[in-house]
Amino acid sequence: MNQTNNIDLTDLIENQKISWYRLSIIAWSCVVMAIEGYDMQLAGFAAPAIIKAWHINKAFFGPVFGFGLFGYMLGATLLGSLGDRFGRKKIIIGGTLWFGVFTLAATHASSITELLALRFIAGLGLGASIPTTLALSVEYAPSRSRATTVGILFIGYNIGAAAAGFIAARLIPQFGWPSVFYIGGIAPLVLSLILIFVLPESIGFLALKKNGVAGVSSIVGKLRPDLSFERDARFILREEKRSGVPAKNLFTEGRAAITLLLWFAYISSLTGQFFLTSWLPTVLVGSGLSLGHAVVTGSAVQIGGAFGGLILCWLIDKRGILAVVTSFAIVAPLIAVVPRVTGSYVLLMPLAFLIGFCLMGGLTGLNGISGTFYPTYIRSTGVGWALGVGRIGSILGPVLGGILISFNPPNSVLFACAAAPVLCCAGALYLFAKLPMTSHARQASAVP
Predict the structure, then answer these.
(1) With the C-alpha atoms ordered 84, 86, 90, 91, is the resulting torsion angle positive or negative?
(2) Could you read off the pLDDT of 227-260 as tens digits, one per residue?
(3) Element (H, E) at 378
(4) Cα 263 → chain centroid
(5) Does the 7-203+245-445 domain belong in CATH 3.40.50.1970?
(6) What is the model's pLDDT at position 448?
(7) Which region among 43-52, 156-165, 384-393, 426-435 has the lowest average model confidence (pLDDT)?
(8) Cα(334)–Cα(424) distance, rounded to whole angstroms?
(9) C-alpha distances out from residue 150 to 52, 80, 133, 384, 389, Å
(10) Burial of 188 (C-beta count, 10 Å sphere; 0-12/13-18/19+)
(11) Could you tell me the pTM of the whole model?
(12) What secondary structure letter does DSSP report for 17?
C-alpha cells in the first residue's frame, strides 16, 4: 500500500482502476438520467391522448413541446453554471426536485396554456440537472474513457425515454394521460431524497474550497483504497487557467471554426431529433396505427439510441469522430423511408430501432465529442454552451413540425423535412473532422 503526503488529484483520476465507488457514481447518475429521459419524452407520448381529451387541433400542441425545451435551454445556460459556484450535487438534487414538483403539477392542467407554462417551468430544472449530472460523472472518469462514460449515462437517458412509451401504452388507455405525469413527478421527488445520501460532490469542486479538505479525503479513500495518506495530506489540483471571459476563449487560438461547426451540428441534429420524436406517435396515430403501437414505436427509437450511444462513444475514444459522421449520414434516408412502412408494424419496429441507433446514438456521440475537443480550462464552458445553444434546435424541431402539420402535407414530406437537418449535421461534422485545429485540440484535451 502506497503512502503519500501530497496527492495530485488529476493523476489520481487518470490512473485509477474501475472500482465499486466509481461504478456507484455512474449507476446513480444513470438513474438520474433515466428519470430525466422519461420526463423529456413524456409530453410526446401523452400528446395523442391529450389532443383527443381536450378536442384540440394537433398543431396547437407544438408550443407545449417548444416551451418545455425552451425552459431546458434557459436552465442549461443560466442555471447550469451554478454548479461551479454551489457544487454539482446541490444543483443535481435541486434540479431533480424542481422538475418533479412541476411535472406532478401538470396532472391538474386543464388547458394548453396551463400545460405549456408548467412544462416550461419543469424544463428549467431539467436544464440545470442534466448537464450537471454529465459534468459530475465525467470529472470522475479518466480522459481515455470520458466519451464512453457519456455514452453509458445516455443509456440511462434512453431507457427512461423508452420506458415513457411503454408506460404510456399501458396506463393511458386505462387511467388517462395524467397517470404518466404522476409517475414523472413522484419518481424524481423520491430520487432527490435518495441522492442526498448516495451521491458524492465533485472532488474537483471540493478541492478548490477552503473547507473542502475533509470531503476530498473521504472521497479519495473510497476512490483509491490502495492509497494511504497522512491526515495533513495536501491535495493538488492541476488546472490551467486563462484570464478574461471563459466563453470568449471558445473563439480564440483558432477555435472559432471548431466552436461554430459544433454548435451548428448540435442545432441541426436536435432539430431533426425533436421534430421526429415529439411528433412521431401523433403522426403514426393519424396514419391509422393504434396508440399502443405508436408509442411503442417511439420507445424503439429510444432503445436503439441507448445501444447506439454506447457503441459510438466507445468508437470516439478508440477511432475518432468519423463514426458519428457516418451515423448521421445513414439515418437521414432511414427517416425518409418511415412513411413507406407505416402499414407494416413488423417492418416499422426494426426501422425505428435503427433510426434511434444512428440518430440518438449519434447525438450521444456528439455529447462525447463536445467534452473532448476543448482544453481543460474551458472544457465545462465549451460543453455548457454547446448544450445550451444546441437547444435552439430542440425548440425549433417540434414547433416547425407543428407548423408543417397544420398544412396537412403528405407524411413523405414531413419525414423528409425531419431528415434534412440531420443530413446538415453530418456535413458540419465532416468539415469539423477535417479542420487542422481539430486534431490538435483533441490531443491537447487528452492531457488534463
Answers:
(1) negative
(2) 766 666 677 666 555 544 556 777 877 788 888 9
(3) none
(4) 15
(5) no
(6) 37
(7) 384-393
(8) 15
(9) 38, 17, 10, 14, 19
(10) buried
(11) 0.77
(12) P
d(CA 415, CA 162): 21
Task: Bin 288: left if φ > 0, else alpha if -120 < ψ < 50, else beta.
Answer: left
Q: What are phi and psi of 233, to 5 degrees?
A: -60, 145
Q: Compute the distance between CA of residue 376 and CA of residue 396 in angstroms, rounded to an integer.
A: 31
Domain ranges for the chain, please list them: 7-203+245-445
- The grid coordinates of residue 347 equal 417492418
Q: In this structure, what C-alpha cell is assigned to residue 56? A: 384540440
Given the C-alpha cell 412513411, which residue does it identify? 339
Q: For residues 38 and 158, give the distance between their C-alpha atoms in angstroms, rounded to a whole number.
A: 8
Q: Pinpoint the alpha helices (H) of 248-378.
A: 256-286, 291-319, 322-341, 345-370
User: Looking at 63-168, which runs of residues are DSSP E strands?
Assistant: none
Give the Cα separation of 423 and 19 in Å (integer). Answer: 40
- CB neighbour list of residue 23: distance below 8 Å, 6 or more residues apart: none
Closest CA to 133 of 190, 195, 70, 89: 89
C-alpha cell at 292: 399502443
Helix (H) or strand (E) holding 249: none
The CA distances from residue 303 to 32, 35, 171, 310, in Å, are: 17, 15, 20, 11
Query: For residues 97 and 189, what is the distance between their CA atoms, to the nearest angstrom?
Result: 5
The rounded distance, in Å, linking the Cα atoms of 301 and 296 is 9
Report the greatest alpha carbon distance in the chain. 71
111: amino acid identity, one letter: S
Which run of H or E residues covers position 231? strand 227-236
For CA atoms 373, 159, 330, 290, the dihedral sign is negative
